[in-house]
Write a structure and sequence with these properties.
alpha+beta; 4-stranded mixed β-sheet; 4-stranded antiparallel β-sheet; 13 helices; elongated
């Protein structure tokens, strides 16, 4: 059986291998090997050349339609036309898009983006490239918040009841942003080893004896954020659409494709639009170099979190006596963790945050069971809870703990009650339950540090800190740093 030190060494070794492997994979994504024959003679046999190197006159056209496939120009609307399109020039334009009746009735509207030769309609141009993106998505709308004391008029109540009955039903939302990219590097690919991620975005044509790839058009789906979504009502006839364009390098394009695929996989596993949005924010709102630094910091944070978790569990698993340990502090940590979990659940927080919070709450409940020496015995289907006895030293610790909690309650309870009353008068909530959970979590965040005082008071009275889980504390400090 592995000792504790060897297990920790094993974990650190696995972590080092994981970081090295991730760095190698990232290098493989951002670096693409050019065609070796491109620099030699013979016309670069086996190479795939960029069509953009010929500097063609291009035009960008954006159409909308309710159909996922179009064969001609019927039943489509032109919403943006950029003549003499310069692939090097960044731009952003806002246009108004007509919303068809089918889309207003929870239907889907698609955007067809064409990049084609100037002066030629896209379906008459054999060298056009296009890409399709839905402009609508389905999401459960956020419930309306109200003032719980002032109440509502009868009309408002009827409207609220109508909204509440449909709260659990996803409705169509408008994506108000469309972000386009074109890969502008004159990169010569090796035809025998085309990267699979870019290959699916490439359209190739034979020009004489050489093969060329047409401009690589890409839609940045990571820029579609929940904050930009707008609910589509039945009365909506027009909605704004902001079309933005920027050039993109091959390395960033490949990285972005992999990230979009990762977000899509999360959604296939059941992650909602809001859950996926949390992941998108990591990449969209952060500079790529800073993102790389964040990855390493997050990796070490994960390592120290795991070691703190492992040592904390080991400490409490072997704990047989509560001498020198504040039971009130353990109960408070459990209460705080459960309240935060319920608050996150009420706010419909991302599963990426909710699942770890739930695991933490279960662990804190287990600690309370150990601290109170609880045993659960089943009598048929009815559980019977029994509490263990404390020895004289533990009773002395409990006496100090109770004394510290008595002094702390004189300060804590008035502050919490006052804060809850203030929020009830001035802040809007979805329900009384939501107000109660928010009041508890505000108290936890604002005054939670005060609950370190009972343990400090017990340490002071007993003139000892040897009973505390110092390894777990050290790893938690490194993790927070």
């Amino acid at each position: 059986m592995l000792s504790r030190s060897s297990f920790t060494s094993l974990v650190v070794g696995v972590f080092a291998v994981y970081v090295a492997h991730t760095c190698w994979v990232m290098y493989g994504i951002v670096y693409t090997r050019p065609c070796p024959a491109a620099g030699g003679g013979g016309g670069g046999a086996g190479c795939v050349w960029p069509y953009l190197a010929r500097r063609p006159r291009l035009q960008l056209s954006v159409y909308t339609t309710t159909r996922s496939n179009i064969g001609a120009e019927s039943n489509i609307d032109l919403v943006l036309n950029v003549e003499d399109f310069d692939i090097e020039a960044k731009f952003e334009r806002t246009v108004n898009v007509s919303v068809p009746k089918k889309t207003r009735n929870n239907g889907t509207l698609y955007a067809y983006i064409f990049l084609h030769h100037a002066g030629i309609l896209p379906w008459h141009d054999s060298k056009q490239v296009h890409i399709v993106s839905p402009l609508t998505t389905y999401m459960v709308p956020k419930p309306e918040e109200i003032n719980l004391l002032t109440g509502e008029s009868a009309t408002q109540q009827i409207e609220a009841e109508k909204q509440t009955s449909a709260l659990d039903e996803p409705v169509s939302h408008w994506r108000s942003r469309l972000t386009l990219n074109v890969m502008v590097e004159d990169f010569v690919f090796d035809g025998s080893s085309l990267p699979a991620d870019v290959h699916r975005y490439m359209k190739m044509v034979q020009l004489g004896k050489t093969v060329h790839y047409l401009p690589i058009l890409f839609i940045d789906q990571l820029s579609n954020r929940v904050k930009d979504l707008m609910v589509i009502n039945r009365s909506t006839t027009e909605l704004p659409l902001t079309v933005s364009y920027d050039k993109i390098s091959l390395g960033k394009l490949r990285f972005w494709i992999h990230m979009q695929d990762a977000v899509y996989s999360l959604q296939q596993f059941g992650f909602s639009e809001k859950d996926a949005d949390e992941v998108k924010g990591i990449f969209v709102d952060t500079n790529l170099y800073f993102l790389a630094l964040t990855f390493f910091v997050a990796a070490f944070h994960l390592l120290f979190d795991f070691l703190a978790f492992k040592n904390d569990i080991s400490f409490w698993k072997k704990k047989r006596s509560m001498i020198g340990m504040s039971t009130k502090a353990v109960l408070w940590r459990c209460f705080s963790t459960v309240v935060i979990f319920l608050f996150l659940l009420d706010e419909q927080t991302s599963l990426l945050v909710l699942i770890p919070a739930g695991i933490g709450a279960v662990i804190e409940l287990w600690k309370v069971k150990k601290a109170l020496k609880m045993t659960i015995k089943w009598q048929g289907l009815r559980p019977k809870i029994q509490f263990g006895t404390y020895n004289d030293s533990e009773k002395k610790t409990e006496e100090y703990d109770t004394q510290a909690m008595k002094y702390l309650s004189y300060l804590l309870y008035p502050l919490c009650i006052g804060g809850a009353g203030y929020s009830l008068l001035n802040v809007k909530y979805k329900s009384w339950y939501s107000w109660l959970i928010n009041s508890f979590v505000n108290g936890v965040y604002a005054f939670g540090f005060l609950f370190m005082l009972p343990q400090l008071f017990v340490n002071y009275k007993m003139k000892s800190v040897a009973h505390l889980p110092w390894k777990a504390f050290t790893y938690k400090a490194l993790s927070c740093g």
